[in-house]
Amino acid sequence: MEMMKKRWQVFYDYRHLVKQLVIKDIKLKYRRSFLGYLWSILNPLLLMLVLVIVFSHMFRFNIENYPAYLIIGQTLFNFMTESTNQALVSISANSSLLKKVYVPKYIFTLSKVTSSLINLLFAMGAMLIVFIATRIQISVYMLFIPVIIIEIYIFCLGFGLFLAQAAVFFRDLQYIYGVVTTAWMYLTPIFYPLQQLPEVVQKVIMICNPMCNYITQFRTVVLEGQLPNIGSVVWGIGIGGIFMIIGTWSFLRNQDKFILYI
Q1: How far apart (Å, rounded) are the C-alpha atoms in residues 214 and 166?
Q2: 256 Cβ contact list (under 8 Å, min separation 6)
Q3: Cα dist. 131→69, 136, 138 in Å?
Q4: What's the DSSP call for residue 193?
């Protein structure tokens, strides 16, 4: 308990640094962009339009309100991909600073995932536009959306911490992870209905793919106008907590060795 209090105090002491790192990441992302923050809305909208044309006309997936169905999966999965990719290189990218002054090393990973969360909130502006354009009925159950976002954030932060410490010792991980996320995307029902797969495969994906669970929860709230199944919520919180524990444990266990490899 005393160790936990000490670690929390250290985090509290460096809270302003986290804030500045997040602000820096946001500014750097849009620094040379003519459209600036507006691109966070236009980019998912344009990508959604392309995918809608491809999958609703060429592959003919008969999904009601396909644009909304698609942009939900696309936006949430993009957040996971961006946050974990940024987290993966968060330590090596700040090696020069870590060699000069003492800073809690997890601060850099935390700031990367948090800045990606801010980008997600911007991108949800595009999601809102699609909801209005496709006449999604606003319901009180949409108040549950922040809970789903928190579930995904905890999962991505825990997974990001694990990737960050692993990438210090295995530099090739950043190239391998690109292949992993591509395969992960196709194993997630972003642009196709999960029901199209064999029942056994559906169960495996729902159990082994956390993003499938989070996206399904979000779609249930928005498209079906009801709360997600309590089992899926418990599973979403549980898997996020498990990754958070594993990621934190592995990061803290290995962080003293980082200086020898960066």
Answers
A1: 25
A2: none
A3: 10, 5, 9
A4: -
Res. 90 pLDDT band, cuts 50 70 90? very high
Of residues 96, 66, 94, 87, the one with CA closest to residue 192? 66
First-residue to last-residue Cα distance in the chain: 31
- The one-letter code for the residue type at 228 is P
Closest CA to 180 of 162, 153, 201: 162
Q: What is the pTM of this model?
A: 0.90
Mean of the per-residue pLDDT values for the chain?
A: 87
Q: Quick one: how far is CA 191 from the chain centroid?
A: 17
Tell me the domain boundaries of the chain.
2-260
**What is the CB-side half-sphere exposure of residue 164 using CA atoms within 13 A?**
37
| Closest to 118 in 3D by CA, of 24, 22, 39 | 22
- Please say whether the beta carbons of 159 and 247 come within 8 A: yes
